[in-house]
From TrEMBL:
Organism encoding this protein: Streptomyces carminius
PANTHER family, alphabetized: STAGE II SPORULATION PROTEIN E (PTHR43156:SF2), STAGE II SPORULATION PROTEIN E-RELATED (PTHR43156)
Membrane-spanning ranges: none
Keyword Repressor: no
Keywords for this protein: Hydrolase
SMART domains xrefs: GAF, PP2C_SIG
Name by which UniProt lists this protein: PAS domain S-box protein
SUPFAM superfamilies membership: ATPase domain of HSP90 chaperone/DNA topoisomerase II/histidine kinase, GAF domain-like, PP2C-like, PYP-like sensor domain (PAS domain)
Gene Ontology terms describing biological process: regulation of DNA-templated transcription
A Pfam family: HATPase_c_2
InterPro entries to which the protein is assigned, alphabetical: Bact_Sigma-Reg, GAF, GAF-like_dom_sf, HATPase_C_sf, HATPase_dom, PAS, PAS-like_dom_sf, PAS_fold
GO molecular function per UniProt: phosphatase activity
Domain PAS: 165-195
Length: 882
């Protein structure tokens, strides 16, 4: 016997609860159908159901279900439980389990009857019950066939049927594109090859709920409806069949067959269990109309709302032989119905469009009872969703759970008089069976969305709170909404003294379309800054995009906007313009950004062509807009405060330093903090009279407005008193009195003040007073460093001060260095630079210019510690050239 080669496998674990049996059945069914083994699905599902029931119900343990495919010969399914002690009396099978009415043992009896081989394996930790089903031989011939139908009822096509064949590699990138695909969608093969299929697919599902296009491409087999965005900006509904294959090298890829949605009969697989003859179908309808609606129960899984709704409308349309079908779900207050799934309707009727429950005339006006309209042209507006679609007859039934309206299911046809009360009863029977599963899946989806919304808002609040920069706040607002909530976003801001919104930031999920979107919005008048809460529709961008696309298309055809013939234009911007129109042609909403009872901006969110927002997304966007408005207002206030602080800081420092003949002077000033507080350090150098200059460097205790007031008082008082001819001690004594006169607002001040007289023969003479300030250091030409003054009391503390001045002579090549305590008190852990560290650095500055000396000192201070400085720093260096 040859060695078994497993070519595919799938496994899942199920908890010991009753609902696990249904989940296990669905797992095996989906797995085998995905492998294309529909012939043995029914037997495998029945056997799996019995064996999993034994494991999770009777044995009370979790169960592992494994599906193993052996090439083209068969499938082995194993059910493993964790209860090896509970044995199976397989030796007495014929005697002990022969009674079919016996309560237990039917699972093994079924295995013996249905499986080609089966068995039980024991280990120390688990028990494995397995069965094998051989694949039936498939001779060449008919696999399935339909009845012979008259030509009048055959599917109608407007042109020859084109089947687009698109091959997609494992990363979702288009690798092959046939001629029919080019004819259907307008793209030549070289334009789309190498691009992700997701760029073209207009997938109807909401991110985070249900199956997305990437997941569908990863499945072994998939069928369903979606849209393809064409080169001219339109979205064509298509019906697709995906099959995952491997090449000779084992590399997986997906072959996608696509036809226009109304031609789906070319690709659509026949429904399992559907009637094969009209007599059988009629007989089942007489028993209660349960023929094709059995598929509603158990497939797809009930927590996949999108898949469940889409499968429902497709089965409903097929069962009643309709041209279109739709399913709407009610809002929480039951005042509106939201379109959640359609088939056979134009793209404009896609998901999340809303219609009121109490709308129009006729029996559909309440949507709470089954209704049949033989001819919609006789009652215009009876079914708002079908207006302009060409549908003439329609049957609608409500979905109710415990008497509460949860939705509406409808099937329509282009011919009048297609439906009677009999079809309404059949559809209502199906709706009653599916309503509970739909409601359960809807509640599961809402819970998932609410949890996701809370996480989103928490993360958004953290990000918005992490910055006080206006531009960064605008960028964060847009980046948080795109693509999570919308396809594109624009933020308008309104300045303090203005009423007209200004476009401040634009973002699109496709970066190549940002410039085109920005140009389009610049041509559109901004939305009105209405403070009313909630999202409101804004049609201007979509209208402008469609108008621009129309004019561009006419120009490309040699026509102007009046339709008259003109010169043919082949400008390269046509494709870009059409792409922009498609990108913003969907629903657009505006949310006000309100802070302190004033509209400070507008948050605009948009969808691509024919797409709409769902209500839960709009509610989430409204919550985000409130948080974003506060963050934007805080950023604006912070920016204004920073600008005021920086302006005040500049006003407390001299605008420029005078040139002192025969003396080099350099100043470096570094303010600590984030720039939104006024520092207490200051410096000054000013002429007193001919040949004499005053200089000062000081530090006011603390920061903020009080410190700034003392700083301004000191700098201006020094200039005024010095120019009155007073000496250094007198100047500082009067300044001390002025500071004390400030009362409770006064701050003590450390100050080094001096007067400088350059000597015409070289050198300079200085008279200095050091009032509580770090002592000035003199660097001689030979490299020695010494203090150039003695410490004296600081200002703003004592009323009676006895200060004196000291004379310092600077020879050619000497440097006088004055700093604030932010330099000497620079710390790294327990280490501090101090006066000695500063003197050591200064000894290395012999022969340098004043500018080089100041730069070296600052560089040494910055390198002393890794952390940013916590105090302002000012350095004043004066040097007599050699």
């Amino acid at each position: 016997m040859g060695r078994t080669v497993i070519t595919a496998r799938a496994a899942a674990t199920f908890e010991p609860v009753g609902r696990s049996v249904a989940a296990a059945r669905a797992f095996v069914r989906d797995t085998l159908q995905g492998w294309g083994l529909a012939d043995i699905v029914d037997d495998a599902v029945v056997l799996t159901s019995e064996l999993v029931t034994n494991a999770v119900v009777h044995a009370g343990t979790a169960a592992d279900v494994r599906c193993l495919r052996d090439g083209d010969s068969g499938v082995r399914v194993e059910v493993v439980d964790r209860y090896p002690d509970r044995g199976l009396p397989v030796q007495d099978l014929g005697h002990h389990y022969g009674d079919p009415d016996r309560e237990g043992g039917r699972g093994l009896l079924l295995c013996a009857s249905l499986a080609d081989r089966w068995g039980v394996d024991y280990t120390a930790t688990d028990k494995r019950v397995w069965f094998r089903l051989d694949l039936p031989e498939r001779p060449v011939g008919t696999r399935s066939a339909g009845p012979v139908l008259p030509d009048s009822v055959l599917p109608v096509t407007d042109t020859r049927v084109r089947v687009a064949v698109v091959q997609v590699d494992r990363s979702g990138t288009v690798s092959s594109w046939n001629d029919d695909a080019r004819e259907l969608f307008g793209y030549p093969a070289e334009q789309v090859t190498g691009k992700p299929l997701t760029d073209l697919a207009a997938w109807p599902h909401t991110p985070g709920t249900g199956t997305g296009v990437a997941e569908a491409l990863a499945m072994s087999r998939w069928e369903g409806s979606y849209g393809i965005r064409c080169a001219d900006g339109r979205t064509i509904p298509v019906y697709a069949s995906h099959l995952r294959v491997r090449d000779a090298d084992g590399e997986p890829s997906t072959v996608c067959l696509l036809v226009r949605d109304h031609e789906r009969a070319v690709l659509q697989s026949p429904s399992r269990g559907a009637a094969s003859d009209s007599a059988g179908a009629a007989e089942r309808r007489e028993r209660g109309g349960t023929d094709s609606f059995d598929v509603f129960i158990g497939s797809p899984p009930p927590d996949d709302l999108d898949g469940l709704l889409q499968r429902t409308v497709e089965r409903a349309r097929d069962t009643l032989d309709g041209d279109a079908a739709f399913l709407l779900l009610a809002t929480d207050d039951e005042t509106e119905l939201e379109v959640r799934a359609t088939t056979g309707l134009p793209a404009a009727r896609q998901r999340f469009a809303r219609v009121p429950v109490e709308a129009g005339s006729g029996r559909y006006g309440s949507a709470r009872m089954p209704s049949v309209h033989e001819d919609l042209s006789a009652v215009p507006g009876a079914v708002p969703l079908l207006e302009g679609t060409g549908m003439r007859s329609v049957v609608t039934v409500p979905l109710k759970v415990e008497g509460r309206l949860t939705g509406s299911l409808g099937v329509s046809a282009e011919a009048p008089g297609r439906y009677t009360n009999e079809e309404a009863l059949r559809l209502q029977f199906a709706a009653d069976r599916i309503a509970l599963a739909v409601e359960s899946a809807r509640l599961t989806e809402l819970e998932r969305l609410r949890r996701g919304s809370l996480s989103f808002l928490v993360e958004a609040s953290d990000l918005l709170a992490g910055t006080l920069d206006r531009d960064q706040t605008l960028a964060l607002m847009a980046q948080m909404t795109v693509p999570t909530l919308a396809s594109w976003c624009a933020v308008y801001t309104i300045a303090e003294q203005q009423t007209e919104p200004e476009l401040s930031y634009v973002l699109h999920e496709d970066e190549e379309r940002i410039d085109g979107l920005k140009a389009l919005l610049a041509k559109v008048p901004p939305p009105d800054p209405v403070p009313a809460p909630g999202a409101r529709l804004w049609s201007a961008p979509g209208d402008a995009a469609h108008s621009t696309a129309l004019r561009t298309s006419l120009r490309s055809l040699g026509l102007d906007h009046t339709g008259l013939s003109g010169s043919r234009s082949t400008g390269g911007g046509t494709g870009t313009t059409l792409a922009t129109a498609s990108a913003v042609g969907g629903e657009t909403v505006v949310l006000p950004l309100v802070a302190r009872n004033r509209v400070i901006g507008l948050l605009t969110l948009g969808k691509p062509s024919d797409e709409r927002f769902r209500q839960e997304i709009l509610e989430l966007a409204e919550d985000l807009s409130r948080r974003a408005a506060l963050a934007l207002d805080n950023a604006r206030l912070y920016s204004e405060r920073t600008a005021i602080s920086q302006s005040l800081q500049r006003s407390l420092l001299p605008p420029e330093l005078p040139e002192v003949p025969g003396v080099e002077v350099e100043v470096i000033y570094r303010a600590a903090g984030e720039g939104n507080e006024v520092g207490g350090d200051f410096y000054d150098l000013f002429p007193i009279r001919d040949g004499a200059y005053g200089f000062a460097i000081g530090d006011v205790c603390g920061t903020g407005p009080e410190a700034a007031a003392v700083t301004g008082l000191a700098r201006h008082a020094l200039r005024l008193l010095a120019r009155e001819g007073l000496g250094g001690p007198a100047v500082l004594e009067r300044l001390n009195a002025a500071i004390l006169d400030e009362g409770a607002r006064s701050r003590f001040l450390t100050l080094l003040y001096g007067e400088l007289w350059p000597n015409p023969q070289g050198g300079a003479t200085l008279k200095v007073v050091c009032a509580g300030h770090p002592l000035p250091l003199r660097l001689r030409q030979n490299g020695t460093v010494e203090s150039a003054a003695e410490p004296q009391p600081l200002l703003g503390v004592l009323e009676d001060l006895e200060l004196y001045e000291e004379t310092v002579s600077l020879d050619p090549g000497d440097v006088l260095l004055c700093v604030t305590d932010g330099v000497t008190e620079r710390r790294e852990g327990d280490r501090m630079l101090g006066d000695d560290g500063l003197a050591e650095v200064l000894t290395t500055c012999t022969g340098l210019t004043a500018g080089a000396v100041a730069a070296r000192i600052m560089r040494a201070v910055e390198r002393f510690a890794a952390d940013a400085p916590s105090d302002d720093m000012a350095i004043l260096a004066m040097r007599v050239p050699e």
